Amino acid sequence: MSDRARDIDTLYRQRPRSRFLRGSGWLAAGLVAAGWLGGGFLGDPGWTPRRAENLTRFLGEVVPYPLQGEPWDWTVAVGWAREIWNERLAAATLETLAISVLAILLAGMLGGLLAPWATRSFARPDPFVPDPRPAGPARRAAWNLLVVVVRVVLALLRAIPEYVWAFLLLALFGPTAWPLVLALALHNAGILGKLTADMVENLERSTLAALRGLGAGRGAVALAGIVPLSMNRFLLYLFYRWETCVREATVLGMLGMVSLGYWIRDARARNHYDEMVLAMLCGATLVIVGDLVSAMLRELVRRA
Amino acid sequence: MAPIAFTLAGVTVRFGDRVALDAVSLDVRAGERVALVGPSGSGKTTLLRLLNGSVRPVSGTVRAGDDDLASLSPAGLRALRADIGVVHQDLRLVPNLRVSQNVLAGGFGRQGLAGAMRAMWRPRRGDLERAHALLARVGIADRLFERVDRLSGGQQQRVAVARALYQDPGVLLADEPVSAVDPARARDTVALLTDICIERGLTLVMSLHNLDLAREFFPRLVGLRDGAIRFDGAPSRLEGSAYRELYRLPHAGGGPDGG
Amino acid sequence: MGAEHAVTVRGRGPLAIRPAVALVLVLAGAWSVWALELAPSALWPGREGLVLAGEFFGRALSPSLTREGVDIPAGTPPLLLTALRAAALTVAFAAAAMLPSVIGGLLLGLGASSAWWSADRDRGRSGRVTWTSRVRVAVGPAVSACCRLLAAALRSVHELLWAVLFLAALGITPLAAVAAIALPYAGTLAKVFGEMIDEAPRPAAGALRELGAAPVVVLAFGLLPRALPDMTAYALYRFECGLRSAAVLGFFGFPTLGYYIAASFENLYYGEVWTYLYVLLALVAAVDWWSGRVRERLVA
To answer: Does A12 sit within 8 Å of B150, measured CB to CB?
Structure first.
């Protein structure tokens, strides 16, 4: 073995590497492998005649009702779709949109109100400018506790899926649109609150410290400093989350309340798969339009 | 492998309305060391980029060895480029890969996807030894398996040089390799590049803002201004009126032989 | 001095557009309230609702460790074992779904990005034009648009709706659950991966092209490595979302966490509901922590 080869071997053994990343890679691979092996997929019978039959029947029933067993005719199909659209899907699509809009506004308010108290640079005895006379340990501990509690609440809000929130709130409020709106609002408040708090922590300190140096109180710093400095990013987050709100709003109604999801569930219960797929298409179109509008709004905010 | 010589005949390059090079003719013989000098925006970088086919002239011909670059097939162009090492001003390394991977990437011109994958993930011992030897030549052999973004700027530049040498090229092109480093290191880098080219008999074409370094290390200077060659010859001849002409200095006032 | 700072902040835009923005947001809110015929009075849950809310949230700090209810059939597994099994299945569905989503997202995202053809287009202005590069420039934008459209279509249908479709075709099988998660996730990953590949710094790719590397090699080892840290972090975030989606699929009969949340809630076993909710929270928080550490090390 040459000196060079020995050198390379030594360097290779001493090469810097992150044990954590290597372990993470193995963990990810292990999870996927365990998922496939342990998730019950091995017992899956694969492509059976019964499934093929199911699928053919299903596809047959997706064809608009007046055309089942008939040759395809666009005028009939469009007429059928228009009738259902006018009768219920138009209103349901608008309701779905309204749910998403109201939900994101409430989420923005709640998240915006909670965020400052989850911001470590703001929720402390001496925000932004170190106090020459440090606060006592009790006051510091109280502020720290507040930050931790608010962050845990935010984590709980966003860890629980919208659908679960809606299911729980439905029992509370009964079948109005409120459970859907509040479910979306709570989950997204958790996300917006965390994103905003992290963003405020990363804001440039100098302006805020200068305001503070002028003698501005906590509220004045928030209103005159933090809000204008973070408004654009906050709106970006808001529109980005609105996009996902629209998407979620299309399904929450499946719990049995207004909006598109209700009609999807209703059609499914009646085995009218043609209507079900039509309602899903309305939802998909709404989501795509929402994506485009959100992208446009975010571009506007970025340019502002 | 036959070293390449370049021939430019009446080459004009335009970017939109701007004329970058205007009817330039130039010969570079194999094994020669040429420094391209002149003020910023004079066309030095464009001329370098012509030589490996990165820029296409609107008129005139560029020949590398016996090949007319305009008539090369994609495979022919790739083969030609594999034989031309380039050191860019901004280095153009992959910062989140290891030094060894960046150096071995120099072999990509002669490899397909399978060879490249092997070089990145399971490099052959012989290839690693060659990379190690080149890194030893530029003085950073002990960084073989370091991530590039963990290195200093000067060390990263040496990685870029090693990658170009790993190609085993006949020609080395260097585009302002020292414009971003401090003067002491600039001299070291130019010395290293010229030494290596002398050792290996490589043709070297380097664009260089620093005229002093060009005079010290290159037997031939090519001076450009406004996309045209205003000077071509030994450094000793770039004096007086020739110098003022190149940098468009006022003719009044004393130079070595002016007045 | 500080006042000057404040003034520059004021001139920077956000405040200038704020009245208009605020007005639009308020109008949007008013329209939604009107469209939904929502009375704020409906927010008052009534005496019954309050009692229920009190009972439910009252159990938040005392989740059950054993089964609630009086006559538990013999042979029923202990609550924590059920929770553990449901959690394991939730993780299994989410993890299994990540494999096809990431592969599909990568292929579709590469197709949607302009990385494999824009260099040819840019070179066309001053560089060499070959017939392969001409083909790439000609079909590239169209192929990218098609990939983007397909990705948008996949993710515009919610995973629960995909689940409804797959249930109709396949019945309650794990494959239906994984397919329902994987399809929209592949669409989302494709969109984000495509953007990340397009935004990755390109100098290294240019250098590899100049030393004669084949286009596919340039893409694989010049461009993708730059985008990979961001892509990895985002895939981990999607895994976290996948956990939530897999849990919710329980509402459609798959025995994941959602199934037991719904069952316990309907039996009024609120302590059990909180147990399952906390298990879900723990899963999500663990993955959140994990992806945060991975991102730190990859990006730094």
So the answer is: no
Q: Which of B98, B128, B150 sits opposite A8 (nearest CB)?
A: B128
Nearest CA-CA distance, residue A24 and chain B, Å = 18
Which residue among C128, C207, C213 sits closest to B56, beta carbon to beta carbon?
Answer: C128
A70 assigned to some structural domain? no
Q: Report pLDDT for C108.
A: 95
pTM of the predicted model as reported, rounded to 2 decimal places? 0.87
Q: Are the C-beta atoms of C286 and C280 separated by less than 8 Å?
A: no
Query: Residue A21 is nearest to which of C1, C284, C294, comparing CB atoms?
Result: C294
CATH label of the domain that carries residue A191: 1.10.3720.10
Q: Which residues, in sequence order, are bridge partners of residue A143?
A: none
Counting residues of chain B whose pLDDT is more than 90, the rounded percentage is 61
Residue among B49, B92, B93 with most chain C CBs within 10 A, to mutate = B92
> pLDDT, tens digit, for every residue of A61-73?
888 877 777 788 8
CATH of domain B1-83+171-259: 3.40.50.300
Cβ distance of B147 and A16 shorter than 8 Å: yes
Check CB contact under 8 Å for B129 and A12. Answer: no
Q: What is the pLDDT of residues C107-134, one digit of tens each?
A: 999 999 887 777 665 554 444 556 677 7
Q: What is the pLDDT of residue C129?
A: 58
| 258-287 of A, contacting C, C-beta below 8 A | 258, 264, 268, 273, 276, 280, 283-285, 287
Is A27 a domain residue? no
> Would you kindly state where each structural domain of chain B is located, as residue ranges?
1-83+171-259, 96-168
SS3 labels along chain C = CHHHHHHHHHHCCHHHHHHHHHHHHHHHHHHHHHHCCCCHHHHCCHHHHHHHHHHHHHCCCCCCCCCCCCCCCCCCCCHHHHHHHHHHHHHHHHHHHHHHHHHHHHHHHHHHCCCCCHHHHHHHHHCCCCHHHHHHHHHHHHHHHHHHHHHHHHHHCCHHHHHHHHHHHHCCCHHHHHHHHHHHHHHHHHHHHHHHHHHCCCHHHHHHHHCCCCHHHHHHHHHHHHHHHHHHHHHHHHHHHHHHHHHHHHHHCCCCHHHHHHHHHHCCCHHHHHHHHHHHHHHHHHHHHHHHHHHHHHHC
What distance in Å separates the CA atoms of residue A260 and residue A239, rounded to the nearest whole number?
Answer: 22
Confidence of residue C8 (pLDDT cuts 50, 70, 90): very low
Tens-digit pLDDT profile for residues A138-163:
888 888 899 999 999 999 899 999 99
Domain extent for A188: 88-303
- Whether chain B has a CB inside 8 Å of the CB on A4: the answer is yes
B112, closest residue in chain C (CA to CA): C214
Predicted complex ipTM:
0.89
pLDDT of residue C125: 42
Model confidence at C1, pLDDT cuts 50, 70, 90, reads: very low
- pLDDT of A15 over the 50 cut: yes
CA of C228: which chain B residue's CA is closest? B96
Kindly determine whether residue C217 and residue B116, on different chains, have CB atoms separated by under 8 Å: yes
Q: With a CB-CB cutoff of 8 Å, which residues 3-32 of chain C face chain B? A: none
Q: Which residues pair with B84 in a beta bridge?
A: B171
Residue of A nearest to C102 (CA): A32
